[in-house]
């Protein structure tokens, strides 16, 4: 794509009342003092294409201001350009203006916003207004990527990008250098190929970094762990393990013998026989209870069950009665509400039937201000009357339909309430009958209970219970005697042996803990040596990855720098610690773009970059070179140049073809 600027016309754009730039597709120089509008030319060109200024901002002042800085109203602000695109002329125009509207009943127009008109055509006479969508589609057809446009028209744009973005653009200029190409170019990198396997270099570097950190953390932690183990290790040098184990075995035998004596004491007494006698007497008591007044108790149980069943039935019926009462109240409430609605519908129906309405229409057209013909006014009024009568008829039918529905609903609720009241009367009678039956049952139960004798009051029960209490007292005395003998044996013989047993076990545990601690220290020291070797291996792998990066960048630098005439690129830095840092620095005669290069050299470097990128993207468009007065020998480009120079002697903008 080859784009040439033939002509650019500004009207009331950023203070430029009217300016015509006739470039005729050639390289030109625009000269003028500061604030005469050189940058405005670039802003106008960018605004026409992208709705932005030359710095990429969408928020900038387009309107012309008066002497005190206020906007001048009712001006049309436009930019018109003639472009030659691949040899074919295209006219483009964009006009930005205020929108003033006179509302009905107001004498003056009021400001209601802004509007933008977009025009395209093969000639100025053929300029035709377009929708924004169609206009943008045309711009996108000649400039598919705004970033590429900036890269090929602004000498400063490439070097204003972040390093990663610049580097990615440069990498796209040349064929990719594969990892295999890099490894083949340096024999010492063959080992790296084995380490990489099927994985990528970036993943491998990430694993190295992660593993080095983990190893470093472990190496720092090991001395701390060893010191902690040594600090907590018990002193067991004075202990003889074999002697302690023999002493423990002897004490265990003595304790076992004492436990045997205790068991003999407990087995030699009559506690077990007494417990059997107690259980036998308790069975006799239970037999008396089970057979005392059996018929009377069974009848009493039956009556109690019957009473409980009837009381539950009465509770259920009372709940049903309460539910029916609540339903009755809900129905009555709804009936009142429905009757009120019916009354309101009647009022509404009467008002609507008696309603009379007069219709009028506008006599003057809001758009053109002319009088509307009488027959058109009459036709409009007739349509309004027909619409009103149709709506009125439909509303009356709806009111009548709603009234019938309300009457039917009230009738249904009234019939339902009659049924509910009948059900409630039936349930009340059943509750009265069941309540009377319950009272009779309670009286019968009372009589039956007064005639019963308690089993606990019989002589036989009292005698057996007295025998049980005597046996329990005898058992307690026997247990106390056993407890006294056993406690005496434990206190005098077993407890001293248990204390010796615990002391020896603690010493043996300390010996075992000390042995485990020594083994753990040996493991940690062995692990420390292993980690140190692993870290050295990772350091070597890091060295190989850095050498790989250096070699790859050298190959890439060579291919990339061949694309430029006066610019060279530095794509990596070797750090003091032999590491590699990715960079992207443009150089001119060895001087970095951002540190030491003057403005003239920066412009020429930018133009050199534009040449390479234009060739790569096959996109050539007018280059706006601001502050071009600082360059005595502007670098030639394949694209059209528009040089903007500050000139004290030129009080107004002048244009010269070069």
Strand order of the largest sheet: 2-1-4-5-6-7
Count every beta strand, where a strand is a DSSP E run of 2 or more residues. Answer: 13
Q: Secondary-structure element order, as H and E?
A: EEEHEEEEHHHHHHHHHHHHEEEHEEE
User: Which value, in Å, is the CA radius of gyration?
Assistant: 54 Å
Number of helices: 14
Question: So what's the oligomer here?
Answer: single chain
Distance between the termini: 23 Å
Beta-sheet strand percentage?
A: 5-15%
Mean pLDDT: 84
Description:
The protein has 658 residues and is of the alpha+beta class. Helix content is 61%, strand content 14%. The protein has 14 helices and 13 strands. It has helices at 38-50, 132-142, 146-153, 157-160, 163-171, 179-185, 190-196, 201-232, 241-267, 271-291, 294-354, 374-451, 459-561, 599-617, and strands spanning 3-13, 16-22, 28-32, 76-85, 88-101, 110-121, 128-130, 568-574, 580-588, 591-592, 623-626, 641-646, 654-657. It has a 6-stranded antiparallel sheet with strand order 2-1-4-5-6-7, with helices on one face. A 4-stranded mixed sheet has the order 11-12-3-13, with helices on one face. A hairpin with a 5-residue loop joins strand 8 and strand 9 (580-588). The longest helix has 103 residues, at 459-561. The radius of gyration is 54 Å and the shape is flat. The mean pLDDT is 84.
């Amino acid at each position: 794509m080859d784009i040439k600027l033939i002509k650019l016309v500004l009207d009331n754009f950023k203070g430029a009342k009217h300016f015509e730039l006739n470039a005729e597709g050639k390289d030109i120089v625009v000269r003028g003092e500061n604030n005469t509008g050189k940058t405005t030319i670039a802003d106008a060109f960018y605004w026409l294409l992208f709705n932005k200024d030359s710095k990429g901002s969408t928020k900038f002042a387009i309107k012309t201001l008066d002497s005190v800085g206020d906007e001048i109203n009712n001006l049309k602000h436009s930019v018109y350009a003639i472009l030659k695109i691949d040899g074919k002329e295209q006219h483009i125009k964009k006009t930005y203006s205020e929108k003033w509207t006179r509302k009905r009943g107001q004498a003056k127009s009021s400001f209601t916003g802004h509007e933008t008109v977009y025009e395209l055509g093969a000639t100025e006479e053929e300029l035709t207004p377009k929708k924004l969508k169609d206009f943008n589609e045309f711009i996108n057809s000649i400039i598919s990527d705004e970033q590429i446009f900036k890269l090929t028209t602004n000498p400063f744009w490439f070097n204003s990008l972040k390093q990663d973005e610049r580097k990615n653009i440069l990498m796209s200029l040349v064929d990719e250098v594969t990892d295999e190409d890099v490894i083949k170019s340096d024999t010492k990198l063959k080992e790296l190929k084995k380490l990489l396997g099927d994985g990528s270099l970036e993943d491998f570097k990430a694993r190295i970094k992660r593993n080095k950190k983990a190893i470093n953390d472990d190496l720092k932690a090991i001395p701390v762990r060893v010191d902690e183990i040594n600090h907590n290790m018990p002193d067991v040098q004075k202990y003889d393990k074999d002697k302690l184990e023999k002493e423990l075995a002897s004490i265990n035998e003595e304790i076992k013998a004492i436990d045997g004596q205790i068991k003999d004491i407990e087995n030699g007494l009559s506690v077990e026989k007494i417990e059997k006698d107690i259980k036998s007497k308790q069975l006799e008591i239970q037999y008396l209870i089970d057979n005392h007044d059996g018929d009377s108790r069974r009848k009493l149980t039956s009556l109690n069950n019957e009473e409980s069943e009837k009381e539950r039935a009465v509770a259920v019926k009372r709940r049903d009665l309460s539910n029916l009462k609540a339903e009755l109240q809900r129905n009555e409430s709804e009936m009142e509400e429905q009757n009120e609605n019916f009354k309101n519908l009647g009022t509404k129906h009467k008002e609507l039937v008696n309603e009379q309405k007069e219709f009028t229409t506008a006599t003057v057209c809001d758009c053109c201000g002319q009088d509307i013909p009488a027959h058109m006014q009459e036709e409009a009024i007739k349509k309004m009357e027909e619409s009103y009568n149709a709506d009125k008829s439909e509303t009356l039918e709806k009111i009548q339909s709603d009234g019938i529905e309300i009457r039917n609903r009230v009738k249904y609720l009234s019939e339902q309430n009659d049924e509910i009241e009948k059900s409630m009367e039936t349930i009340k009678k059943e509750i009265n009958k069941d309540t009377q039956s319950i009272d009779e049952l309670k009286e019968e139960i009372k009589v039956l209970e007064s005639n019963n004798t308690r089993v606990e009051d019989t002589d036989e029960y009292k005698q057996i219970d007295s025998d049980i209490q005597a046996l329990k007292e005898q058992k307690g005395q026997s247990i106390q005697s056993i407890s006294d003998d056993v406690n005496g044996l434990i206190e005098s013989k077993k407890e001293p042996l248990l204390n010796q047993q615990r002391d020896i076990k603690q010493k043996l545990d300390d010996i075992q803990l000390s042995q485990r601690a020594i083994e753990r220290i040996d493991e940690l020291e062995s692990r420390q040596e292993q980690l140190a070797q692993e870290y050295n291996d990772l350091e070597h792998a890091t060295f190989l990855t850095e050498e790989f990066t250096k070699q790859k960048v050298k190959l890439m630098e060579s291919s990339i720098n061949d694309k430029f005439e006066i610019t060279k690129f530095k794509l990596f830095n070797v750090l003091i610690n032999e590491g590699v840092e990715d960079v992207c620095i443009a150089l001119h005669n060895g001087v970095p773009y951002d540190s030491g290069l003057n403005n003239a050299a920066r412009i020429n470097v930018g133009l050199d970059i534009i040449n390479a990128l234009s060739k790569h993207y096959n996109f050539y468009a007018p280059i706006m070179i601001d502050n071009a007065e600082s360059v005595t020998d502007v670098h030639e480009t394949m694209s059209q140049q528009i040089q903007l120079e500050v000139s004290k002697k030129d009080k107004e903008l002048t244009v010269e073809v070069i």
